[in-house]
Amino acid sequence: MEVKLWNDKRERELLESLADLYAIIKATEKLERAYVRDLVSAADYEADCLKLISQFNSLSSSLAGVVTIPRFVQAYRLDCPAALNRLVQSGVPATIELRAATSSSSAPPATAASASAIAQCVQSFITAMDAVKLNMLANDQVRPLLHDLSTSMGKLGTVLPPDFEGKVKVNEWLAKLHKMGAGDELTDQQARQLNFDLESAYSAFMASLPTAGL
């Protein structure tokens, strides 16, 4: 007798999303352990970890209201403490946490940005870039994310210069969005430009952090 795992397309897509979530958590756990054991380079670890975090954030958003991460972990008996710390608690790769801590400790106490502030800025960048890639282009979707990013960059003290191009670009986009209605959407050309500006600003931001010997 054939056992049906789903009754319609919606149920099938839900099960596929849950399977993807399971795979992301397990993959992150393996990556974290490989990094701790020095089985993967810092550069490869960071790139793979950022990709997994981005995928996790996207899936978590799509499953909001359907399942919570704690319930999911409990239901499927996932023993992945390192992955949950990275995906849920931290939200950034360990390499970035180390660079943030190094940047914080090397700056003068009166102007140093905390490691958590730098990590939060990274999260804000990732969230904003993911939203654009997922075609979340309505003003009331994009503007709050850019506002959070602008606020995060403003908390970084001397890590970023006052004329940092990323700050300038984000503020220019906020000014444009302020003139639009809440339900107005960015055009394809505007979305492409915003994505380019965000990725360029993120690359410049990451380059401004010390390597900490990584």
TrEMBL record:
Keyword Isomerase: no
Main location: other
InterPro entries hit by this protein: ESCRT_assembly_dom, Vps28, VPS28_C, VPS28_C_sf, VPS28_N, VPS28_N_sf
One CC-aspect GO term: ESCRT I complex
Keyword annotations of the record: Endosome, Protein transport, Transport
Biological processes per GO annotation: endosome transport via multivesicular body sorting pathway; protein transport
VPS28 N-terminal domain boundaries: 1-98
Function statement: Component of the ESCRT-I complex (endosomal sorting complex required for transport I), a regulator of vesicular trafficking process. Required for the sorting of endocytic ubiquitinated cargos into multivesicular bodies (MVBs). Mediates the association to the ESCRT-0 complex.
Complex formation: Component of the endosomal sorting required for transport complex I (ESCRT-I), composed of ELC, VPS28 and VPS37. Interacts with ELC.
Alphabetical list of PANTHER family matching this protein: VACUOLAR PROTEIN SORTING 28, ISOFORM 2 VPS28, VACUOLAR PROTEIN SORTING-ASSOCIATED PROTEIN 28 HOMOLOG
Name of the protein: Vacuolar protein sorting-associated protein 28 homolog
